[in-house]
């Protein structure tokens, strides 16, 4: 890979492209990631946005973007991106736009669309080798409608549809592996609280062609029930505890860009969030806490054994 | 009929306050409506919720336009016209403000004939925080209407917060009881206005409005980043303030982590915060490496700015 222009945090942009004044919640971890991604991609982008929290970014006559934005139904953002890409290619072929006027086609969806409803459309788009960048802001539930369970909801979390002593009985779907199994050009996980890691990955993805997909874990004060000022702190902890591995898939290989060492106990991350409060109050649920820790340990075990 | 409107910010529990009060009325044998009202805005944005309660069937629908009681959980909303706190408030209305200032000051500022009560003791003097303010609002409302017993209030609160567990319920119960007791002197102050019969419909004076062509009615917008026209700075209750002497000018930290991207470097390399749009999440305050940013209550910050500019108090 060629030299990155993001060698240190000081290389992060000090002015920002995404306009302020959007309807996202104060302290939105998704917006934190999206504004950082947009700063790296630059203004020659067109966003294809599936229904979700971020479809409130652009509410007529207001938009935070410097260019076009297309709104699609929840399951069909990758199909929308195909149409936009095809149209741009036709315009280029006919000589109506030059290469310098070409746009990066970015699909922007939440986890509801990425992990669930839109997965089939994404699979098809990768199959066709669509030249696009998919950005999923993953707040682990259907946040825009009140945080119902989605395919991204982690084990044991409370959601509007998973209440009771043990929270959600299922497990977070491994979308990274599902996407990577399609062998696209690039897949990565990022988080807004690690801007440098995010910027390097998005920079890399932007220079490539073909399907490139990025999952941004998005701490959500409203859906995860914590004070908005803790968004970046929770983001740091989810990486330090190994709950959200930062990694990338390239040329058939998965590489971890950050190996937390030593790994902090998952409790450090869980106890700050109201959606996991039932694991600690009225009394500690040792079985469930140990189960969540064991799952994270099992993920890292092979990586920590190798030299 | 009792008509009660709760005003607060998203996240302060106004929807829950209205549910608790509505359920308490219901347990007392009333017919009840309760509904929250908010748009696409989120946590921190002005929202309201309302309750109607009557012994007879309720035929009124929609937002309450002649409230008997208006409770304001956050006094910083009083100056936000979009919050609509004063909509339909008249001499028959009781206005209860959770905040540090006296009723006379509000009466003078608002030029209203409404009866005004304030609750100071529920605001932390140091931090301006209002813990469990939803429960405070529900507890005070239950006493002011004069027909809800403490036992029913407690039963309603426990029902509504059941899924949050015992600790949350007991903390909220404590605040609700405290508010119920604090406003004891004003028990029953709300005037029970009889259900208004529907007015005789009279034919309106129709005005013909020709349909505009689409490109006039909803013109294409070619300008970029028009969202800056929306002043989300109004959502803020706390303001991050920079102490330049402590600042190490690492603006790439606060500037990147700010979700709304409202922190940029100024000409000298210091972070410059766009207060018209800062929503007050305080991530920058928590993350600033040299602790050069502090959280200041918005009211206090505005007071200091006015004093510095020599504006009349």
Which properties best describe this structure?
heterodimer; A: 307 residues; alpha/beta; Rossmann fold; eight-stranded mixed sheet; 8 strands; 15% strand; B: 313 residues; Pyruvate-ferredoxin Oxidoreductase, domain 3; Alpha-Beta Plaits; 2 domains; six-stranded mixed sheet; 9 helices; 10 strands; globular
Can you tell me about this structure?
The complex is a heterodimer of chains A (307) and B (313). Chain A is of the alpha/beta class. Chain A has a single domain, classed as Rossmann fold. Helices cover 34% and strands 15% of the residues of chain A. Chain A contains ten helices and eight strands. Chain A has helices at 29-41, 77-93, 111-117, 119-127, 175-180, 195-207, 221-224, 231-240, 266-270, 286-305, and strands spanning 45-50, 69-72, 104-110, 132-138, 186-191, 211-217, 247-250, 253-256. In chain A, strands 2-1-3-4-6-5-7-8 form an eight-stranded mixed β-sheet, sandwiched between helices. In chain A, helix 2 (77-93) packs parallel to helix 4 (119-127). Chain A is globular and about 70 Å long. The two termini of chain A are 23 Å apart. Chain B is an alpha/beta fold and 313 residues long. Chain B has two domains: 2-186, Pyruvate-ferredoxin Oxidoreductase, domain 3; 232-309, Alpha-Beta Plaits (2-Layer Sandwich). Helix content of chain B is 29%, strand content 17%. Chain B is built from nine helices and ten strands. In chain B, a hairpin with an 8-residue loop joins strand 2 (31-37) and strand 3. In chain B, helix 1 (14-27) packs parallel to helix 3, helix 1 crosses helix 4 (150-160) and helix 3 packs across helix 5. The longest helix of chain B has 17 residues, at 166-182. The two termini of chain B are 40 Å apart. The relative contact order of chain B is 0.13. Chains A and B meet through helix 1 and helix 8 of A and helix 7 and helix 8 of B.
**Which structural class do the helices and strands of chain B define?**
alpha/beta
**How does CATH name the architecture of the largest domain in chain B?**
3-Layer(aba) Sandwich
The percentage of residues in β strands of chain A lies in 5-15%
In the CATH scheme, the class of chain A would be Alpha Beta
With strands numbered from the N-terminus, the spatial order across the biggest sheet of chain A is 2-1-3-4-6-5-7-8
Number of domains of chain B: 2
3D shape of chain A: globular
Topology order of chain B in helix (H) and strand (E) letters? EHEEEEHEHHHHEHEEHEH
Poorly predicted runs of chain A are: none
* Quaternary: heterodimer
Q: What is the CATH topology assignment of chain A?
A: Rossmann fold
Helix content of chain A: 25-40%
Distance between the amino and carboxyl termini of chain B: 40 Å
């Amino acid at each position: 890979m060629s030299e990155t222009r993001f060698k240190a945090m000081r290389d992060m942009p000090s002015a920002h492209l995404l306009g302020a004044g959007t309807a996202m919640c104060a302290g939105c971890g998704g917006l934190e990631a999206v504004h950082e991604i947009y700063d790296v991609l630059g203004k020659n982008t067109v966003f294809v946005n599936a229904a979700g929290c971020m479809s409130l970014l652009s509410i007529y006559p207001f938009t935070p973007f410097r260019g076009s934005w297309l709104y699609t139904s929840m399951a069909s953002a990758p199909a929308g991106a195909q149409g936009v890409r095809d149209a741009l290619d036709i315009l280029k072929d006919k000589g109506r736009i030059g290469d310098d006027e070409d746009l990066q086609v970015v699909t922007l969806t939440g986890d509801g669309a990425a992990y669930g409803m839109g997965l089939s459309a994404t699979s098809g788009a990768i199959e066709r080798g669509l030249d696009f960048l998919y950005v999923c802001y993953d707040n682990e539930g259907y946040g825009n409608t009140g945080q119902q369970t989605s395919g991204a909801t982690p084990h044991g979390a409370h959601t509007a549809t998973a209440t009771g002593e043990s929270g959600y009985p299922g497990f977070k779907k491994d979308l990274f592996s599902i996407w990577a199994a399609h062998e696209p050009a690039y897949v990565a996980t990022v988080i807004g609280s690690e801007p440098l890691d995010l910027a390097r990955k998005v920079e890399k993805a932007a220079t490539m062609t073909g399907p490139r997909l990025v999952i941004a874990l998005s701490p959500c004060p409203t859906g995860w029930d914590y004070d908005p000022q803790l968004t970046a702190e929770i983001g740091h902890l989810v990486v330090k505890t190994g709950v959200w591995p930062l990694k990338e898939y390239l040329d058939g290989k998965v590489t971890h860009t950050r190996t937390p060492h030593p790994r902090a106990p998952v409790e450090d991350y869980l106890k700050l969030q109201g959606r996991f409060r039932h694991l600690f109050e009225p009394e500690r649920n040792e079985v469930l806490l140990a189960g969540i820790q064991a799952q994270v340990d099992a993920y890292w075990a092979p990586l920590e054994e190798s030299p | 009929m009792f008509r009660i409107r709760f005003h607060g910010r998203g996240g302060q529990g106004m929807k829950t306050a209205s549910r608790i009060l509505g359920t308490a009325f219901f347990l007392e044998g009333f017919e009840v409506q309760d509904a929250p009202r908010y748009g696409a805005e989120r946590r921190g944005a002005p929202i309201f919720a309302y309750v109607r309660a009557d012994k007879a069937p309720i035929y009124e629908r929609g937002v309450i336009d002649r409230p008997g009681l208006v409770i304001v959980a956050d006094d910083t909303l009083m100056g936000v016209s979009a919050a609509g706190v004063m909509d339909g408030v008249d001499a028959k209305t009781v206005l209860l403000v959770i905040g540090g200032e006296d009723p006379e000051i509000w009466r003078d500022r608002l030029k209203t004939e409404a009866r005004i009560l304030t609750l100071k003791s529920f605001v932390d003097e140091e931090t301006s925080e209002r813990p469990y303010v939803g429960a405070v609002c529900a507890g005070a409302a239950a006493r002011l209407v004069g027909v809800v017993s403490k036992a029913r209030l407690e039963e309603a609160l426990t029902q509504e917060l059941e899924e949050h567990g015992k600790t949350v319920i007991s903390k909220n119960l404590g605040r609700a009881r405290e508010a119920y007791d604090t406003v004891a002197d004003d028990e029953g102050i709300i005037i029970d206005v009889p259900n208004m019969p529907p007015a005789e419909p009279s034919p309106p004076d129709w005005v013909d409005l020709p349909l505009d062509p689409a490109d006039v009615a909803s013109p294409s917008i070619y300008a970029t980043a028009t969202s800056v026209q929306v002043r989300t700075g109004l959502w803020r209750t706390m303001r991050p303030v920079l102490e330049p002497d402590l600042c190490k000018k690492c603006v790439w930290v606060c500037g990147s982590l700010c979700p709304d991207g409202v922190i940029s470097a100024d000409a000298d390399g210091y972070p410059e915060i766009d207060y018209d749009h800062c929503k007050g999440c305080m991530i920058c305050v928590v993350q600033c490496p040299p602790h050069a940013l502090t959280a200041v209550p918005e009211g206090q910050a505005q007071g200091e700015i006015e004093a510095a500019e020599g504006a009349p108090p």
